[in-house]
Design goal:
six-stranded mixed sheet, 4 domains, 490 residues, 18 helices, binds iron/sulfur cluster, five-stranded antiparallel sheet
Length: 490
């Protein structure tokens, strides 16, 4: 049976008035005034019965989970242990000095009982309040994804054939349903078919990059941030091996639903610059201010690039610098590309062969089946406005992630299974939006904290490399050469 908390019963027995003890400009006062948590009672009423023990008020539980991230407390056990010592927390929850704090275990039970909808609603409410407060423009958005370490060690990963792994996953799902009385996670790993973490089967093994250490169980957080003030307008959580570009359309749909505004331009890094993304955005009327893909030139440097060849649309051939026609020869279904190939006998006699190709079979050019749409999209991506947006993205998007990581324990999953990680992401996004909402309206909450020393060091090093690239100063360090070449080319 759902309980309802009636306020501070023992407030005056000690002659202590929490209302007077908590300072007027305390950030939690602003949060309390700004966010109405009482919607939780109606939202989860259907998950409680009519008889039986009276539960802890859902509003109190939701506020406790909000506090867990807002105050960046290490664990729920620690939060409840510290609760009687913190007058501001007691005031925020509406508890009296003498009242017994709920047991920490009721929080995990509440999550299992409620599911994720309540937390999503809390996040969406914060977005709508930001829209009403004029903090969201909605027309220009920034996208990015970040890996989250699952609450499972690498030692928990076992390797076996795909069939055995599927059986282990099924067994863990059944066991969890028995213990937690929860629905099974809908997440199924597409890859990692021969690996599974016995601690968190939803988290596939993923590394952060080719030079970033070994793979370990991870999730991925995908986020959309509005350009005006950095309000988070859409959040998606997936297994760590899900590609970022695949989440562009779901994030855009969520942004439209949450803000009620149409997107005119989407800004993202090179990772999002797939042909499908460019074409989908153009089809939706969104300008793709994505970092342009690598120029579709020849693999070897110093040779003619694709731009040196003219495409004759009527004849469906490429014309090379000496007038030779490259005809369509090979079709790649998976890559959705066609190879246009020159006559190898003509290329063998060509005076420009040394500048065109090193292949014995003659020069070839790859053309995507949606090349015409792609050229339109790339023209948008190369506009000065798009370049300025990508520079702004560096501090807006990365700042949003840095804020979450430094202040709210974002990079590490507190709980296991994908649906719980989604709850963590909704709560952190809600807390960040509330910080902006309060900061934007003059409260004492810091919306943009100082970046960590590591971030500051990286930014300084990158700025130094950029200056060296602008001055065209040659570099000797092999670890620097790739970045240097990219900056010089840009
Ligand atoms: S090598 Fe072949 S494709 Fe290249 S310029 Fe000469 S004839 Fe044309």
């Amino acid at each position: 049976m759902m309980g309802q908390h009636d306020g501070q019963k023992a407030l005056f027995s000690y002659g202590v008035d929490l209302e007077r003890r908590v300072r007027a400009d305390h950030p939690l006062r602003r949060v309390n005034a700004m966010i109405d948590f009482t919607f939780a009672r109606a939202a989860v009423a259907h998950t409680y019965g009519e008889n039986g023990n009276v539960s802890v008020d859902p509003v109190v539980l939701l506020k406790l989970m909000f506090l867990l991230f807002h105050e960046n407390v290490r664990s729920e056990r620690e939060l409840v242990r510290r609760l009687p010592e913190r007058l501001d927390w007691l005031w925020f929850l509406g508890y009296g000095l003498d009242e017994e704090a709920p047991n920490h275990s009721v929080l995990s039970k509440a999550r299992a009982r409620w599911g994720g909808e309540l937390f999503e609603e809390l996040f969406v409410r914060t977005v709508r309040q930001c829209v009403e407060a004029g903090l969201v423009d909605g027309a220009k958005v920034h996208l990015d994804g970040s890996l989250i370490d699952a609450d499972a060690s690498r030692d928990s990963v076992v390797k076996a054939d795909a069939e055995t792994i599927a059986r282990i996953r099924a067994a863990y799902g059944a066991q969890e349903r028995k213990l937690d009385e929860t629905k099974p996670s809908s997440a199924r790993c597409e890859t990692n078919l021969k690996l599974v973490s016995t601690t968190d089967p939803d988290a596939p093994c993923v590394s952060k990059g080719p030079q970033s250490g070994t793979a370990r169980p991870r999730y991925k957080h995908h986020r959309m941030v509005d350009d005006k003030k950095g309000v988070i307008t859409a959040v998606v959580t997936t297994a760590g091996d899900v590609a970022e570009p695949a989440q562009t359309t779901p994030l855009l749909a969520q942004h439209r639903a949450n803000t009620g505004k149409e997107v005119m331009a989407a800004v993202a890094d090179r990772g999002y610059g797939t042909v499908e993304n460019y074409c989908d955005l153009i089809a939706q009327g969104v300008r793709p201010h994505l970092s342009p893909m690598q120029p579709a030139g020849h693999k070897s440097e110093g040779l003619f690039t694709k731009e040196d060849f003219h495409y004759d649309e009527a004849a469906d051939v490429y014309i090379c610098p000496v007038g030779q026609r490259l005809k369509p020869r090979r079709f790649h279904q998976r890559r959705q590309m066609t190879d246009y190939v020159a006559d190898k006998k003509v290329c063998a006699q060509c005076p420009l062969r040394g500048e065109c190709t090193k292949s014995k079979t003659g020069r070839s050019i790859a053309r995507h089946w949606k090349e015409a749409e792609l050229e339109v999209a790339l023209a948008f991506a190369r506009l000065p406005e798009a370049q300025a947006d990508r520079r702004r993205r560096r501090h807006l998007m990365e700042g949003s992630f840095a804020h979450a990581a430094n202040r709210y324990h974002f990079k590490r999953a507190r709980w296991r299974r994908l649906w719980r990680q989604q709850i963590q992401d909704w709560l952190i996004a809600a807390v960040q939006n509330v910080a902006l909402l309060c900061g934007g309206l003059g409260a004492g909450v810091t919306a943009k904290p100082r970046p960590s020393p590591k971030v500051r060091r990286s930014a300084a090093l990158f700025a130094f490399r950029r200056v060296m690239a602008d001055l065209r100063v040659p570099v000797l360090a092999p670890w620097w050469r790739g970045t240097h070449r990219a900056l010089v080319a840009a």
